[in-house]
């Protein structure tokens, strides 16, 4: 069995005391925005405004916010398909993220990617990836490029590569970690362990279920952190990123949290036990963090409620924006296929002739 | 003009492009210390050092993905996959990632990567080491696939591929590396997406690519002695495909045979044949025929390997049958 007890606060997490009240309120504000956004996305999916797959960060808000808070704007992040929250925390406009879910031309990638493929080059947010593990070699390549171009140091760029617990079993994970360990690349592999890969538990999927240990064959140190605590997550991520930046030492960080709902919005998660579902709800990081901030006096009820109301309003506006945005145009569909124009590039729609007889 | 082997043309081009652009680097198995399984990268580690010529462990998915990720940040990797057979281990990175990233991410980023890899059988390497899988990649929008048949095109198309901002699969062939040919001196940037008429003719068109073009030319020259005029189209680019050049040739000759190293069913020839059917139907005097590999995992034994692979004899036979089927009256009798 994996040791899934809540990790104890380490020396690093005691730094929490030094976090400013503003920063804490900021984290809470982001967590609430993600919560509201995801609940609304689920609703919009049920109303058929959103198509395809739709995976939510519900229950992972503390992890998402803590990880993104640790990144510098110049760092690169590669995501999984469960990416809405990261996109928001990284600064993408909620309206543009919702419009992407709606498949509209005003979406972050113009409606070409959808839920699983949020991307923003300016914010160095290098995409959500729908193929499990597909992002790991790519993120390792981004770290390769940083290493190719620049020297290690406190201000050096680094890469954060997100993945789920199930991903640690795919070949791409192991090949990438070997290369990163071999070439000393500035990358932190973050295993967001929500204890379930679709419906398969970590214990049924990984011969070493303590996932932070999985880098040992590549001399990549790992740490586990309580994913329900945004400050602990941020501090652990900062420490790992520092090792990557300064020592060019690739690192693993495992965050432990619970998925509040099914794998995607259409999954009722009947395979989960009642106890498991209850544990997930008891550990819900959003009310837990609210209570913590109330207790420590960083927030009062009025301020906390105002944060909720503001988030609801932002999400209302995002939906309105997405709904009223124009669809992308089929006539422009072929324009994005190639960056360098090429002779005889295909441009035929179904039923068009491929050759014009003369 | 200088006479060079196909291998030397590739080596010279890699050197020139690395010298021109600091972002160009080479990555693959055994390309540095070992100088490449087929010695295409000979001398380059010594000249450019291990930062620019990166030897990798045996991890095709890993290092191909690393190259793609580095290209997303603006580097211009030239990946060597030792043979096209091993590209299957990297196919998720090539097909699901390199080919899709630009379009799926709204055109915000591109993937300027070249994957050099030799295909082809005929070296008694048996079933897993003798395949022509180029059609798998030619099927995929977002990729460009080129397959030069001679040293001059190898230089021009490799230069173009390296300077192109999209992922290019650059198909080589074990049977071409020692081929000699005249190569223009100085910078030559070829045009991806265009075919070439490598021999003019009037009686029948043979369409081929990569090593197949050599056989097509050999057969065309032999038949010329009998007064049969064969036009040879070298596709050069499998994606995009220059359908107009193929159709224009067939409209002139009224007959077509496709000669391909890959397997018959769903092969390159099937696409060319469908193209001719749509673009030159009214000009055809005989059914379009394909000469392709027998549909077996290629055996090791030399007689079996020979029997399974398309060759000059099988191409000659099909050309004669096609001419006979259309009451061809030229030549000295078919």
Rounded mean pLDDT score of chain B: 97
Number of helices of chain A: 11
Strand residue percentage of chain A: 5-15%
Rounded Rg of chain B: 20 Å
The name of the CATH topology of chain A is: Rossmann fold
Which spans of chain A of ≥5 residues are poorly predicted at pLDDT below 50? 11-16
Distance between the termini of chain A: 71 Å
- Fraction of residues in H or I helices of chain A: 40-55%
> How many discrete domains of chain B?
2
Would you count the extended β strands of chain B for me? 14
Do you know the CATH architecture of chain A? 3-Layer(aba) Sandwich
> Which architecture of the largest domain in chain B per CATH?
3-Layer(aba) Sandwich
Biggest sheet, spatial arrangement of strands of chain A: 2-1-3-4-8-7
Topology:
The complex is a heterodimer of chains A (about 350) and B (about 325).
Chain A: H1 21-46, H2 61-70, E1 76-79, H3 84-89, H4 94-101, E2 125-128, H5 135-149, E3 159-164, H6 171-183, E4 187-193, E5 196-197, E6 200-201, H7 202-205, E7 222-226, H8 230-247, E8 251-256, H9 274-282, H10 285-295, H11 301-324
Parallel strand pairs in A: 1-2, 1-3, 3-4, 4-8, 7-8
Antiparallel strand pairs in A: 5-6
Helix pairs in contact in A: 1-2, 1-10, 1-11, 2-8, 4-11, 5-6
Chain B: E1 2-5, H1 6-20, E2 24-28, H2 44-48, E3 53-55, H3 60-72, E4 76-80, H4 91-98, H5 101-104, E5 114-119, H6 134-138, E6 144-146, H7 151-163, E7 168-173, E8 180-183, E9 196-199, E10 204-208, H8 212-224, E11 230-234, E12 237-239, H9 243-253, E13 256-263, H10 268-279, E14 289-293, H11 302-308, H12 312-324
Parallel strand pairs in B: 2-3, 2-4, 4-5, 5-7, 6-7, 10-11, 10-13, 13-14
Antiparallel strand pairs in B: 1-8, 6-12, 9-11
Helix pairs in contact in B: 1-7, 3-4, 8-12, 9-10
């Amino acid at each position: 069995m994996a040791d899934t007890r809540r990790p104890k606060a380490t020396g690093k997490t005691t730094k929490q005391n030094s976090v400013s009240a503003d920063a804490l309120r900021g984290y809470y504000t982001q967590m609430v925005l993600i919560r509201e956004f995801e609940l609304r996305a689920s609703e919009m999916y049920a109303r058929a405004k959103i198509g395809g797959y739709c995976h939510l960060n519900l229950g992972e808000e503390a992890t998402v916010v803590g990880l993104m808070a640790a990144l510098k704007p110049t760092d690169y992040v590669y995501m999984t398909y469960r990416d809405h929250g990261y996109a928001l925390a990284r600064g993408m406009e909620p309206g543009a993220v919702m419009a992407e879910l709606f498949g509209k031309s005003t979406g972050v990638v113009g409606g070409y990617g959808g839920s699983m493929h949020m991307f923003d080059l300016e914010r160095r947010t290098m995409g959500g990836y729908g193929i499990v593990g597909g992002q790991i070699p790519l993120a390792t390549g981004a770290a390769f490029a940083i290493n190719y171009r620049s020297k290690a140091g406190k201000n050096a760029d680094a890469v954060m590569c997100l993945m789920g617990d199930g991903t640690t079993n795919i070949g791409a994970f192991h090949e990438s970690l070997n290369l990163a360990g071999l070439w000393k690349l500035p990358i932190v592999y973050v295993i967001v362990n929500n204890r379930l890969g679709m419906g398969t538990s970590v214990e049924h999927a990984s011969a070493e279920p303590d996932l932070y240990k999985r880098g040992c064959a590549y001399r990549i140190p790992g740490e586990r952190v309580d994913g329900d605590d945004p400050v602990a997550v941020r501090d652990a991520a900062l420490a790992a990123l520092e090792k990557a930046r300064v020592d060019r030492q690739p690192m693993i960080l495992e965050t432990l949290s619970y998925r509040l709902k099914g794998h995607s919005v259409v999954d009722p998660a009947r395979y989960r036990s009642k106890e498991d579902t209850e544990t997930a709800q008891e550990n819900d990081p959003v009310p837990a963090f609210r209570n913590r901030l109330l207790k420590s006096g960083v927030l009062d009820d009025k301020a906390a409620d105002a944060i909720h109301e503001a988030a609801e309003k932002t999400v209302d506006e995002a939906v309105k924006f997405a709904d009223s945005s124009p669809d992308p145009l089929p006539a422009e569909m072929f324009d994005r296929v190639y960056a360098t124009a090429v002779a005889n590039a295909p441009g035929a729609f179904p039923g068009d002739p491929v050759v014009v007889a003369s | 003009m200088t006479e060079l082997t196909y291998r030397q043309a590739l080596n010279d081009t890699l050197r020139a492009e690395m010298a021109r652009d600091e972002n160009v680097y080479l990555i693959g198995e055994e390309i540095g210390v070992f100088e490449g399984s087929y010695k295409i990268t000979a001398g380059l580690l010594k000249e450019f050092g291990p930062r620019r010529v990166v030897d990798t462990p045996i991890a095709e998915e890993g290092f191909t993905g690393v190259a793609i990720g580095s290209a997303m940040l603006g580097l211009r990797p030239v990946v060597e996959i030792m043979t096209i057979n091993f590209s299957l281990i990297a196919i998720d990175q090539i097909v699901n990632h390199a080919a899709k990233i630009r379009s799926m991410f709204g055109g915000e980023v591109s993937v300027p990567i070249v994957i050099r890899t030799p295909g082809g059988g005929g070296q008694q390497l048996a079933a897993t080491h003798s395949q022509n899988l180029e059609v798998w990649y030619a099927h995929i929008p977002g990729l460009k696939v080129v397959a030069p048949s001679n040293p001059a095109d190898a230089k021009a198309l490799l230069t173009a591929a390296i300077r192109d901002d999209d992922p290019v699969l650059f198909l080589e062939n074990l049977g071409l590396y020692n081929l000699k040919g005249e190569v223009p001196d100085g910078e030559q940037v070829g045009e991806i997406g265009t075919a070439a008429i490598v021999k003019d003719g009037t009686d029948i068109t043979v369409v081929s690519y990569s090593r197949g073009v050599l056989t097509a030319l050999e057969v065309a020259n032999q038949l010329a002695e009998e007064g049969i005029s064969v036009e040879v189209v070298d596709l050069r680019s499998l994606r995009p495909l220059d359908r107009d050049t193929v159709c224009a040739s067939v409209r002139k000759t009224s007959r077509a045979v496709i000669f391909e190293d890959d397997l018959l069913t769903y092969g390159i020839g099937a696409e060319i044949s469908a193209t001719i059917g749509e673009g030159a139907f009214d000009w055809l005097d005989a059914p379009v025929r394909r000469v392709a590999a027998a549909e077996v995992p290629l055996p090791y034994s030399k007689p079996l390997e020979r029997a399974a692979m398309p060759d000059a004899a099988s191409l000659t036979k099909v050309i004669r049958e096609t001419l006979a089927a259309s009451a061809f009256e030229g030549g000295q009798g078919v």
